[in-house]
Records
---
Amino acid sequence: PYRLSPIELADMKKQIKYLLTKGLIRPSTSPYGAPVLFTPKPDGSLCICIDNRALNKQTIKNKYPFPRIDDLLDQLRGATIFSKLDLQSGYWQIRLADDSIHKTVFQTRYGSYEYLVMPFGFTNAHSKLT
């Protein structure tokens, strides 16, 4: 586990409570677990980050890369009507398969928890959102 300051520990407790209340995570007894650290957001608040590097190394990478932006724009040539959709916390809109939940465990001083929705930072997660 990473060393966290008292401010980070207090913020972690608050964020875990929020995630539990929203039904995005649950307590876990899985043998897996990734450490937690924080990064500062532009507004000065803290963003909880799960260090998933070990799991990502074992994940088979998506064989179908993200399309190139210029190719997508070429397909839109001549179009006159456009729409835009912005999902708030988009990754959290995707439920995980039951057999994948145990792989999302993160360990904190306050216990181990697992995501019930797609957490940010997993290999191939972006391909599920597009």
Note: The longest helix spans residues 6-21.
---
Amino acid sequence: MFRLISITGFVIAFASIAWAYRAKTEERGAMFAWWKEQFKTVGEALRELFALRDLKSSLYRLSLLFFVILAVTGFAPVLLFGAHMSGVLMILHVTVAPIFVVGAVALTLMYAQRQTFNQTDWDYCRQLVRRKLTNKNIFAAGLSFWKKTSFWLLLLLTVPVVMSVVLMMYPWFGTEGQHALLQWHRYGAFFLTLVLILHLYLITLTHYRAGSSHS
């Protein structure tokens, strides 16, 4: 069941993004080029992090890389073979997970103030509920609101994903309890990944629109 739900969810998510990217070729190229640059500078981000320069940007890119590793090692066996993690994938997953958690906590502390909802966000929310989106800058307002919403959803979903693993380390639960915690972890990670995909799409759109406005 989890395999079917995961495949369906990821297909819908990526198909939706592909549909949203049905822009001109040069626009798609600009967006993909921006993300290519982010991954090309991972090594530079690591050096800047250890040198205590540009901590936010460096930590963000490294945390993104760690999450990709976690997602691939966690979902690849399930989606491709219908099996659980084992061997090298399990070792890599368990090794990277605590590093990602530390990075996620640090990013939360660094970006939380910037991601607080302001009056513009609440005005957009009220207009959305009333279905009266009349603001001239409604696209920018909506982009800001959903980007902040996805940020806090990521933080919220990280809690059960992490805590389920922590609780499985203690002999407080029987076989059924361990199975339930495993399901919490799997589904929590699934929804966390979907929200992250949305968040990354919104960030890409933000950077592209910002670049277009200055060009």
Note: The CA atoms of residues 48 and 54 lie 6 Å apart.
